[in-house]
Specification:
The protein has one domain: Pnp Oxidase, Chain A (Roll), CATH 2.30.110.10. The model has no long low-confidence stretch (mean pLDDT about 95). The protein is built from 5 helices and 8 strands. The protein is about 20% helix and about 30% strand. By secondary structure, it is of the alpha+beta class. The radius of gyration is 17 Å and the shape is globular. Strands 1, 2, 3, 4, 5, 6, 7 and 8 form an 8-stranded antiparallel beta sheet that branches.
Amino acid sequence: MGKLYDALDARLRAFIAEQPLFFVATAPREGGHVNVSPKGYRDTFAVIDDTTVAYLDMHGSGAETIAHLRENGRITLMFCSFDRTPNILRLYGTGRAVLPDSPEWPALGPHFPADVPGPRSIIVVDLDRIADSCGYAVPYMTLVDERDHLKDWTLRKSPEALTTYRHTKNATSLDGLPALDPPPSSAP
């Protein structure tokens, strides 16, 4: 059934590349809300090396993942096979959000499509546990298509409107933890 791996080998990398959907789980250090988010859009997840992965974090109505990573770094990513071969892959590690103005951005950015509108950050995860399990209870499902709603929403916003959105909707988590920094004050 389940197996532990020291690194992301060619078979695991191929499995990851085939999945159109993955899930991200984070939680605050104490109390608060556990967050689980589905993530889609092909080519927005990258294997950086044998024990490092990253995904392009796009705009959202919240910033729980970023807030939790700022507080404690804990993160789990899960991939499920919905086709004929059952499998679940969980990647456990320590994550961090790399923002577009970070010195790391130019090195990480080329791992993702350049035409994705308005990325909010790149979430980088250093893996400390890689495990799979059977996935026997995961149903068969067929991908019909990706939704363009988030891309379209982002394209309708000006850069200034996106900045305002991030600073009003993504500054803190549900539990009040800091997520994205507010804009610098213009007061003297």
